[in-house]
Amino acid sequence: MTSADSAANSHYRSRAVAAGFVLARWLGSMAIGIAGLIFVTFLFTHLSSIDPVIRVVGDKASPETYAAAKAALGLDQPFVVQFVDYALKILSGDLGTTWSTGQPVLSDLTRAFPATFELATVAIIIGAIAGVGLGILAGLWPGGWRDMAVRLLSLMGYSVPIFWLGLLALLFFYARLHWFGGPGRQDVLYELATEHVTGLMLIDTWLSGDADAFRDAVSHIALPALVLAFYSTAGIARLTRAAILEELHKEYVITARAKGASQFRVVFRHILPNIRAAIITVIALSYAVLLEGAVFTETVFAWPGIGRYLTISLFASDMPAILGGTLVIGVCFVTLNALTDVVVGRLDPRINP
Q1: CA 330 from chain center: how many Å?
Q2: Which of 40, 88, 178, 198 is 20 to 30 Å apart from 170, CA to CA?
Q3: pLDDT tens digit string along 170-209?
Q4: Residues 187 and 109 in one domain
Q5: 94 burial level (CB within 10 Å; 0-12, 13-18, 19+)
Q6: Is 66 helix (H, G, I), strand (E, B) or coil?
Q7: Which of 47, 67, 91 is the last residue of a domain?
Q8: For 148, how many CA atoms within 13 A lie in the half-sphere containing its CB?
Q9: Nearest to 244 by CA among 143, 135, 128
Q10: Residue 130's pLDDT is what?
Q11: Domain boundaries, position 60
Q12: Distance between CA atoms of 106 and 113, rounded to whole angstroms?
């Protein structure tokens, strides 16, 4: 074996070790995060004023019946034993049964999550494109009318109540102008005729080959997605503007301009590659917030996602449904954070210790 082959093998081994370290750290952070979520939701069951035994036997049950039901539910066991039992059930996919309908929580969330996932994904795509574009415009011409318009938009995004904006959007664009579809994911006619394969209405209607059903699905998701995208755009544009303003006065940008590089080349060839880690991070965080369940948006637009599911469960004091939805949301947040760390670490190795 030559010295060159030896050096190449050593290089590949070091890269494999580094990749294994990153994977182990990613899995470890996910495991810690999920374990923390399980423990927090378990504490909720003990700190809640809702007595699950009363929900089972009623408030007029005899002390003997109450004690028997408590023992059957395992609530007479020590705290640690209850937690281990709860954690094992969660890890096996048993999120309990809803008190309202008697259905497994997991089956309810399986139906609700695709709606939130679809809405959040469309919203973050719109918000990321608009936010980065507006942030570039504001950063390249600070103090001008473009900058003032973007800053005003960002201020509105942080201050305007989302339910109020959603109601206004329904009033003008749906009720008066008829530009978009109304509440829900589809009109009843198309919803009953569409075969639900993936649970994602845009994909299912596309696969069905029914152009009218697809257009109807697009018209229904467009308005709530634009409302959610407005808030994502505000945060992404603000961070992109700040990052570009910071980079504009650095030596590599000044050198590129001195060599005659165009504004387009300076931005897309030099500045954006250096700030992409920060942009990806804020986009991922915005996406995680949307996946947490846009409660007000889903309620206003009657969107059958996790946000609306949790709202209904809260009003019904349905603790298993609330905790199950919280766990799913938390797992999404932890997973997105871990994936973002891996992606950002690959894009900018200086971030990894």
Answers
A1: 10
A2: 198
A3: 888 888 888 888 888 888 777 777 777 888 888 888 888 8
A4: yes
A5: middle
A6: helix
A7: 91
A8: 3
A9: 135
A10: 92
A11: 13-91
A12: 10
Domain boundary residue, one of 41, 68, 91: 91
Instruction: Please indicate, yes or no, if residue 1 is contained in any of the structural domains.
Output: no
127 CB contacts (<8 Å, ≥6 apart)?
Answer: 228, 229, 230, 231, 232, 233, 236, 283, 286
**Where does residue 309 fall: left (phi above 0), alpha (psi -120 to 50 degrees), or beta otherwise?**
alpha
Residue 265 has which token pair?
């080349």
Q: Is residue 4 part of a domain?
A: no
Which of these, 320, 335, 341, lies nearest to 31 by C-alpha position? 335
111-125, 189-203, 295-309, 335-349: which range is least confident on average?
335-349
Token pair for 349: 């190795």
Kindly give the residue spans of alpha helices, DSSP state H, lying in the chain.
3-47, 52-57, 63-72, 79-91, 105-140, 145-159, 162-169, 188-193, 201-208, 211-248, 251-258, 263-265, 272-291, 295-300, 306-315, 319-347
Which residues does residue 97 pair with via DSSP β-bridges, in sequence order?
104
